[in-house]
Amino acid sequence: MQPVFEVAHLLRSQWPAIEQSLKNKTINSWQIRTLSALSKCRTAALGGHIDGCTACGNLRISYNSCRNRHCPKCQGNEREAWIEARRRELLPVAYFHVVFTLPSELNVMCMLYPGIAYSALFDAVWATVNHFAKDEKHLGATTGMIAILHTWGQQLMLHPHLHCIIPAGGLTKQAKWKHSKTNGNYLFPVKALSKVFRAKYIHHLRKKVKEYNQLSLLEKHIILPKDIIGSCFKKEWVVYAKKPFSGVNSVVEYLGRYTHKVAISNHRIINIDNTDNTISFFYKDYKDKGRKKLLTLEHAEFIRRFALHILPKGFVRIRHFGLLSSTSKTSAIPLIRKQLPETKMEPEKSKGPIYNPLVCPCCKKETMITLLNFDMRGPPLNWINKSSNLLQSLKK
């Protein structure tokens, strides 16, 4: 069902104010480029194409998508293709879901230097998992990991955390598969993970800052405030280990929910009031048993929070490590499968009807073809006539 209100609606109505935010330096040029793409998604501003049905002669005008990874409307196709690729790589073993969260004291670093802060997060989490996996007391093997960066909480405040999927085992130095010693209840002790993660992150953050300062052409270098580092060591860091997945389908279902997720979906927005300059949306209050509640923000505050989650240009938010990395999986996965009992792949759960652009909305046949493309000026009337004539010639 098409949502009534969209993030793009708000961006278009508030565009002069957004441009002023750039002048006031409350958002940067990359963020405004991203917001601009989202505001134009599936509108005449990006051009489009005219499709026609060779069976019944029906014409359909479609506007192009922005295909931006932060857009609530443009993740469907990319998500399905990515999930299917991962589905073919899954091993017939248990998988664990572990979440590593940065403390709020580091939010200022995430806002000012997101590329450095988030890169250090990926490196520190893998260093932590790899440290425990190679320890004979816990596993004594090399494991793998898929890590997915989320930067938001339910109310769109900055809440950087990494969702990790880790198989319950790994390859020894002798290239033999070794199952986790925990009988499937947990991967590694969470309290120990938390302490090592804290130390690893501060180490990798300092390393990234040093590398940046060495490569930076600017006179002003990044300085890590000692009080922030001190406060980070004074508190317990959050590492949350969820129950292991029950099967391959559970892993795939999880991937579908989390991999290509954006800060807020259009379906959560219930009202945009241009008179009061407010926007209202639902959120889950996890401090109150996950109950669904309503939050109303001023337009400017909503846009500010949304912009916090626009990642730096070219930043990769889904990464693979160890046995699941692109350099290892082609040899590691077939090797592991030979050592494990053969299991049939679970049949994929039905996802309901999926949009097929080849299906005519009129006669329901797969007979739609693209006749003409048009730019931001839109489809002039004579183009419609040309499309009709071309369609008639194709039907003869």
Structural descriptors:
single chain; globular; 12 helices; five-stranded antiparallel sheet; three-stranded antiparallel sheet; alpha+beta; 2 domains; 396 residues
Lay out the secondary structure.
Layout: H1 7-13, H2 15-23, H3 29-40, E1 48-53, E2 59-63, H4 76-87, E3 95-101, H5 107-112, H6 114-134, E4 144-152, E5 158-167, E6 169-171, E7 177-179, H7 190-215, H8 226-234, E8 238-241, H9 248-258, E9 269-273, E10 278-285, E11 291-298, H10 299-307, E12 318-322, H11 329-339, E13 368-374, H12 381-395
Antiparallel strand pairs: 1-2, 1-13, 3-5, 3-8, 4-5, 4-12, 6-7, 9-10, 10-11
Describe this structure in words.
- The chain is α+β, with helices and mostly antiparallel strands.
- The protein folds into two domains: 7-69 and 356-395, no CATH class; 76-263 and 312-339, no CATH class.
- 37% of the residues lie in helices and 20% in strands.
- The protein is built from twelve helices and 13 strands.
- The strands form four sheets. It has a five-stranded antiparallel beta sheet with strand order 8-3-5-4-12, with helices on one face. A three-stranded antiparallel beta sheet has the order 2-1-13, covered by helices on one side.
- Strand 1 and strand 2 form a beta hairpin.
- The two termini are 37 Å apart.
- The model has no long low-confidence stretch (mean pLDDT 88).
Give the structure's gist in a few sentences.
With 396 residues, the protein is an alpha+beta fold. The chain contains twelve helices and 13 strands.
